[in-house]
Design a protein that fits this description.
The complex is a heterodimer of chains A (498) and B (465). By secondary structure, chain A is an alpha/beta fold. Chain A is 29% helix and 14% strand. Chain B is of the alpha/beta class and 465 residues long. The radius of gyration of chain B is 25 Å and the shape is globular. Classes of the chains: A alpha/beta (498), B alpha/beta (465). Chains A and B meet through helix 3, strand 5, helix 8, helix 9 and strand 16 of A and helix 2, strand 4, strand 5, strand 6 and helix 9 of B.
Chain lengths: 498, 465
């Protein structure tokens, strides 16, 4: 079946780390006893060892599978010159949610565009709840023959406008789009990389609330611009440029609180864009003081539609106890997309107390909203997007099975650009690795072409994994997975052991 | 409009180097002496500021390192590594975890709310207060913009019996006596912890801090002489052991606490005979039968009850039961008997983070005690060497009262701001309205069961991924 209008995905291109010593799980060292027989070069599946001019070197330490390797070089070496041990630097990385193995897996996907080899856990973290305790159920007796059909015949695209109105008909080719990261909290280079990747992948990226940099204007058709409580950089001109406008009522990382940009990051460029003063911290107040009811919210939606009649309106909200009422209210106010942002995600500066304690995790909010919209009879007319701690393609599959239509990611994009999650995005000159910084010298650590390809690679790997999951579940479209909690099991509620 | 309560803080340096989670190991052997060394390119200039603290043999570089890994990843000979610090993981215990300790240190030093980037790195949930999330408002309900005082949020609470109603005579004058209560500007009472190398200067410093904050400090009655007599107003002497006759009650003291015993109500009458204006709190261990004890005391006219949990936020007699459930149980018992509003419930036991204050109040407490955090504010590592008679690694007993007071004010100031954030998010502008508001909280057990309980069935031969 060939279709002349089919979307053409870009190819994965190997895109190496910016640093000369990528961090891997194991370290390989070779002793002086080496006789350069080349056995290790021959059998290593990861290309860790290279031979040059009669000598053998360890060149790709970070790719070593260590004790998980099916063809272990340290066993095959005739003179026992190779030793492999766990890398202690690796053990200092990561946390409960983004474990060191999830970080390394994401770096692998961003480099190669495919899922990592055995030995790296790329599906779940170690938080002890939510996504990390949910598992997809792959049954043996599922529809036969799906394993053999081409990947391109599995549909992972998503229609964003499900109303019968005159707004844009927008389909994204992967069920994920990029979350808001404002100019000022990340560098322009990072923003452009994400946007170019979204453009190449047939999906969207969001400006966040820091205004609309000129560098993004060539990609208007793949941008979401945000109207947030501080109204930084909000102009009719930017609203008219884009096809989707997002109202940010609350952000998962700062539920009930406004956005926060520390003074160090308010550079002259940021201040100009946000019409603020250099060096002073910026706060988006919470709430919109013009909104205290659904009727007030509708005035906001109508305002956007009067400025750009064909725009889709997305409403980004956090996850209070009555998040279901908020979602229905947004539907009746005329929104096309309800974007639930759980409390555990986020990339910008936020008080730790808010991230940990305020509002419910996305894993609880999505089923609640999905069920309530169904009961109200409007589920098919609204697109439900979820974010907040979605890190892997398996998280995407799980949140869709819980009831979302698609997901919105942020941190994963930054990890693809080699974020190590040191949690210092907000301090001093910002990110020392050049990702979330407004310092011009640090921002030069990332090249736009490099960043773009890294993010493209990661999402290509995600797409392939989603297709693999759908095949295993016997489904031909991601839409079949929405709300299918019967395709999942929670390990804490198992009726009997596997 | 009364004046707005604010806590002013300023940076108060640590006296000792802190214990960091990981350290830098930089080998010298094999160094290429590059013209542009990665150490010279450090964004945070960590290597330029390095020095060895000879007293503790802690490389100062570890405190300064911001974990960006650029030197680790850029050194041509891979001579720079990072590794985990076993001393860090050895600190504290399962409740007073290393990450809690370092957060308390940071707040005591800076007086600021902990802020970080990159989302929430911790576990999905945990025991006790970590199995609760607080609500927030959006669109259908207003929040309160309490940040930087744009909307005033009051954290003041009352101790004692608030009258059910007021009576006024014909000329609008209050009839009868004015209500007899103790007002404190925030729902936190300091409490001298049960261990630590605590000197007279330490207690004096804590008392100075309590006075500065406008709240009380609870301390064993035997140690009252350690503090200045003019501090009486902010002291809350504790009678620790049963059967001890209360003596040494300082002048100007407003409140005293005695333990629950079979005849404690008679003791209250005796105390009030000598000190008619003194409030008496009765301390009940959080254990089996506490609801009945609280009810009996309340009916007998006692208006302040202290529920005491252990230092790990658990029951005294059952470490599987959490403090929050105990508070809730007593609170609900008093509500069922229609006497809750006449009682002040104080709660203590292992409150370790600012959010525990808000959550304890949501569960039904009026005010909480803070004990070990004010010790950790003085750089305590919770190593418990002091219990064994060994010297304190951070010599808490040698700290000056002024330093102690400043550190405590910083810590409680940071906690107060975090309480404002939680209350503002909920749209609640008065701490008294927060009490018992479980409708504005979400509980892990309930939500997890509701959402996932049906996802437990699996057929034979299925594979899980």
């Amino acid at each position: 079946m060939s279709n002349p209008n089919v979307f053409k995905f870009p190819e994965a291109v190997r895109t190496r780390s910016r640093f000369r010593n990528p961090i891997g799980k194991f370290r390989v060292t070779r002793a002086g006893d080496c006789i350069a027989c080349g056995k290790c070069v021959e059998i290593c599946p990861q290309g860790v060892h290279v031979e040059r001019r009669g000598h053998v070197f360890v060149e790709n330490n970070y790719l070593c599978l260590g004790t998980d390797c099916p063809e272990a070089c340290y066993k095959a070496c005739p003179v026992y010159a190779i030793s492999v041990r766990r890398n202690p630097v690796f053990d200092t990385l990561g946390d409960f949610r983004w474990t060191n193995e999830l970080l390394a897996s994401t770096w692998y996907m961003a480099e190669f565009g495919e899922r990592p080899p055995a030995g790296l856990e790329y599906k779940v973290g170690n938080s002890g709840g939510g996504f990390d305790r949910l598992r997809l159920i792959f049954r043996k007796h599922d529809r036969s023959g799906l394993e053999d059909i081409p990947d391109d015949d599995i549909d992972v695209s998503l229609e964003l406008n499900r109303r019968d109105d005159n707004a844009h008909r927008i389909k994204i080719e992967v069920p994920v789009y990029g979350g808001g990261m404002s100019y000022g909290s990340v560098s322009v280079t990072t923003m452009v990389s994400r946007t170019r990747a979204a453009s190449a992948l047939g999906t969207f990226s969001c400006t966040g609330e820091g205004g609309y940099p000129d560098e993004l204007k060539p990609y208007d058709d793949h941008m979401i611009t945000q109207v947030a409580t501080g109204l930084f950089g909000v102009k009719e001109e930017t609203i008219q440029r884009v096809r989707i406008v997002e109202f940010k009522y609350a952000q998962g990382a700062k539920p009930g609180l406004g956005g926060h940009l520390l003074g160090d990051k308010v550079t002259p460029g940021v201040a100009r864009m946000r019409e603020a003063v250099v060096g002073y911290p910026l706060f988006s107040p919470f709430p919109f003081h013009s909104v205290y009811s659904v009727e007030d919210h509708k005035k906001h939606v109508d305002w956007i539609k009067s400025v750009n009649p064909r725009a889709l309106v997305s409403v980004k909200v956090s996850t209070p106890t009555d998040v279901d009422m908020v979602a229905v209210g947004s539907y009746y106010a005329g929104a096309h997309i309800i974007h639930l942002d759980g409390s555990y995600g986020g990339t910008g500066a936020a008080p730790d107390i808010a991230k940990k304690n305020i509002a419910m995790p996305i894993e609880y909010a999505v089923p609640k909203v999905h069920r309530f919209l169904q009961e109200e009879g409007v589920r098919d007319k609204m697109t439900l997007i979820a974010s907040g701690g979605i890190r892997t393609p398996h998280d995407v599959a799980k949140i869709i099975a819980l009831g979302a239509d698609g997901a919105c990611t942020g941190t994963a994009d930054l990890v693809a650009l080699e974020c190590v999650r040191c949690q210092n995005c907000e301090s001093g000159r910002g990110c020392a690795r050049g990702i979330a910084t407004t310092d011009p010298e640090l921002a030069e650590l990332i090249n736009v072409d490099w960043g773009t390809q890294r993010i493209i690679n990661m999402y290509l790997a995600w797409r392939r994994e989603l297709i693999r999951i759908l095949k295993k579940l016997g489904m031909k479209s991601i839409k079949e997975l929405v709300g299918r909690t019967d395709c999942m099991v929670h390990l804490d509620y198992l009726k009997h052991q596997v | 409009m009364p004046s707005k309560y604010m806590i002013h803080t300023k940076t108060v340096p640590n006296r000792f180097k802190t214990v960091s989670k990981s350290g830098i190991i930089a080998w010298e052997e094999g160094c290429l002496k590059c013209a542009v060394c990665v150490k010279k390119m450090c964004v945070y200039d960590v290597y330029d500021k390095r020095g060895l603290d000879s007293r503790h043999m802690i490389e100062s570089i570890d405190n300064l390192c911001m974990n960006c890994y650029r030197c680790v990843q850029n050194c041509p000979k891979e001579l720079i590594h990072k590794s985990l610090n076993p001393e860090f993981n050895a600190m504290g215990d399962s409740h007073w975890s290393p990450s809690i300790i370092v957060r308390l240190w940071s707040q005591s030093q800076t007086g600021k709310i902990p802020v970080s980037g990159a989302g929430y790195p911790g576990p999905f949930s945990g025991p006790g207060f970590d199995s609760m999330w607080t609500d927030m408002s959006e669109i259908v309900r207003p929040t309160r913009d309490g940040i930087h005082g744009r909307e005033y949020i009051s954290t003041a609470v009352d101790l004692g019996k608030t009258p059910e109603h007021l009576m006024f005579n014909g000329s609008d004058t209050l009839e009868g006596n004015a209500p007899s209560i103790i007002d404190i500007p925030l729902p936190i009472i300091l409490k001298v912890p049960s261990f630590g190398t605590i000197s007279a200067n330490t207690i004096k410093g804590w008392a100075m801090g309590a006075r500065h904050l406008g709240t009380l400090i609870a301390l064993p009655i035997e140690k009252v002489n350690y503090a200045l007599e003019d501090m009486g107003e902010c002291l809350m002497p504790l009678v620790l052991s049963k059967g001890t006759a209360p003596g040494n009650i300082p002048e100007n003291a407003k409140i005293i606490e005695i333990p629950w015993t079979e005849g404690c109500q008679g003791i209250v009458e005796d105390i009030k005979g000598y000190f008619p204006n003194l409030f008496v709190s009765i301390r009940i261990p959080m254990a089996e039968g506490m609801e009945e004890k609280a009810l009996s005391l309340a009916r007998g006219g006692v208006s302040i009850i202290h529920l005491e949990g252990n230092s790990m936020s658990r029951f005294m007699d059952d470490t599987t039961r959490n403090l929050k459930d105990g508070i809730r149980s007593v609170h609900m018992k008093l509500i069922e008997e229609n006497i809750r509003d006449g009682i002040t419930l104080l709660a203590s036991g292992g409150l370790a983070m600012a959010e525990h204050v808000a959550k304890a109040i949501i569960c039904g407490a009026d005010t909480v005690f803070v004990d070990f955090p004010i010790l950790i504010a003085l750089e305590c590592r919770m190593c418990r060497r002091c219990i064994k008679g060994l010297p304190c690694p951070v010599e808490i007993d040698t700290a000056s009262p002024q330093w102690v007071a400043s550190r405590v004010v910083n810590l409680i100031g940071a906690w107060h701001n975090q309480l404002l954030e939680v209350m503002g998010a909920m749209g609640i502008r008065d701490a008294r309205r927060l009490r018992g508001e479980v409708g504005r909280a979400m509980f892990f057990e309930d939500m997890d069961r509701t959402t996932f309980e049906s996802m437990g069935k699996i057929e034979e031969g299925c594979k899980l991924e």
